[in-house]
Every structure is written in structure tokens, then in C-alpha cells.
Design brief:
The complex is a heterodimer.
Chain A (H helix, E strand, L loop, with lengths): L4 E3 L2 E4 L5 E6 L6 E7 L6 E7 L2 E5 L7 E4 L6 E5 L8 E8 L8 E2 L3 E5 L1
Parallel strand pairs in A: 2-11
Antiparallel strand pairs in A: 1-3, 3-8, 4-5, 4-9, 5-6, 7-8, 9-10, 9-11
Chain B lengths: L2 E3 L4 E5 L4 E3 L2 E3 L4 E8 L6 E5 L10 E2 L10 E3 L8 E9 L6 E3 L3 E6 L1
Parallel strand pairs in B: 2-11
Antiparallel strand pairs in B: 1-4, 3-8, 5-6, 5-9, 7-8, 9-10, 9-11
Classes of the chains: A mainly beta, B mainly beta.
Chain lengths: 114, 110
């Protein structure tokens, strides 16, 4: 499968714990995006990378959230001190740098904070 | 700030009936509009984009800048069209971050 992959697919954690998600984009895609989707809503943009540079962050990305893409390939999204409001589907997408290029989405990581 | 509104959470039609999923947007610049679809147990995927002006799986969408709308239409719905549909926009030449609407679930009954 050469599409975007995300791990884990599901994560259940207790409030206050830290969690980390991983996204592997399509090979040679230099743009990588993170979105969050809560129940009954459309995805909301969190942040994006061009190669290893994080170029924009949404106001939704509080100080407890951090994202990295150290070598311009895979990316990680960490949430520290999780809260129940963090429960959501976290989606990753990748695209080529071209502004009109399509974003390809991964299957998502569903986070449940108890 | 940009915003996308899909007024219908659920649209139910019979097979063979016409379908129109509504999408309105607000954005002062030059947006690019998309429709994404998510079939059951599958990932989100691009259905069509206004720049391409093409018909995919019988669906078309016309950008109406005067009414700030980008409604998705299909003349004859099929059962396999049942899915979640999301309208989205992005700001041209600004990183391509997508702003999505809340989505409309289309149910096509036999």
C-alpha cells in the first residue's frame, strides 16, 4: 500500500497521559498536514510542514500539542497532558509542493481520552 | 477568515432521483473549492475540484461567486453514492490548508 499510513489506528488513554501519533506520507510528497475531526464535524486544520519546516499552526494547536517532521519524511503529533476534549480523529494528509496538488488522506488515528 | 457551510446534515433520496448537496462559503480572496467524499470504512478522498471543471462519477459542481456557492449535483443517484460528503476550500498560493464544512450524509435508498 503506497498511500498515507497512520499509527496507531486507535488509542485509548487516561486523562493527563501523553500520547504520540505517527504519520507516514506518500513517498516524495513534501507537504504534510495534520487535521482533527470531532464527531459530527468536518476536519479542522491543525498544522502543516513543507519538508521538515513547520510553516503554519492553527490556533487550535495549544501548547500541549507539538508536531515534528525531523527528516522531512514521517511526522509525529504529540499531545501532552491529554484532556477529554482531545478525543477526536486525527487525520494526516500529504501532497506535493505544487499549490494545486491534491491532498491524500490517511485512515486517521482515533483518540479516546477517558 | 474563511468559512464553509453545508446546511444539510443528512440528505435522503431514492435511487434514480436527482441529488443536490449544498455548500456555501465565505472568503474575501480567491478560493479554490473542493468536494471530498468518505465512503463507509474508507478514508477521505477528493471527489472533484472547481478548477478542473470535470465530472467525476456523474457528479458536477459549479462555482457561483455571486452567491458564494459550490453545490454538488448528480442527475440520477445510485446506491453506491451513499457516503459522507464534505465541501472544502483553500486559499490559493497560501499553503493549501483546507477549510471543511460540517459534511452532509447522503443516503440513497433502493
Amino acid at each position: 500500500d503506497t498511500g498515507v499510513s497512520q499509527n496507531p489506528r486507535h488509542k485509548i488513554t487516561k486523562r493527563g497521559q501523553n500520547v504520540t501519533f505517527r504519520c507516514d506520507p506518500i513517498s516524495e510528497h513534501n507537504r504534510l498536514y495534520w487535521y482533527r475531526q470531532t464527531l459530527g464535524q468536518g476536519p479542522e486544520f491543525l498544522t502543516y510542514f513543507q519538508n521538515e519546516a513547520q510553516l503554519e499552526k492553527s490556533r487550535l494547536l495549544s501548547d500541549r500539542f507539538s508536531a515534528e517532521r525531523p527528516k522531512g519524511s514521517f511526522s509525529t503529533l504529540e499531545i501532552q497532558r491529554t484532556e477529554q476534549g482531545d478525543s477526536a480523529m486525527y487525520l494526516c494528509a500529504s501532497s506535493l509542493r505544487l499549490d494545486k496538488d491534491t491532498q491524500y488522506f490517511g485512515p486517521g488515528t482515533r483518540l479516546t481520552v477517558l | 477568515a474563511q468559512r464553509v457551510t453545508q446546511p444539510e446534515k443528512l440528505l435522503s433520496v431514492f435511487k434514480g432521483a436527482p441529488v443536490e448537496l449544498k455548500c456555501n462559503y465565505s472568503y474575501s480572496g480567491s478560493p479554490e473549492l473542493f468536494w471530498y467524499v468518505q465512503y463507509s470504512r474508507q478514508r477521505l478522498q477528493l471527489l472533484l475540484r472547481h478548477i478542473s471543471r470535470e465530472s467525476i462519477k456523474g457528479f458536477t459542481a459549479d462555482l457561483n461567486k455571486g452567491e458564494t456557492s459550490f453545490h454538488l449535483k448528480k442527475p440520477f443517484a445510485q446506491e453506491e453514492d451513499s457516503a459522507m460528503y464534505y465541501c472544502a476550500l483553500t486559499r490559493l498560493y497560501a499553503g493549501n490548508m483546507l477549510t471543511f464544512g460540517g459534511g452532509t450524509r447522503l443516503m440513497v435508498k433502493p
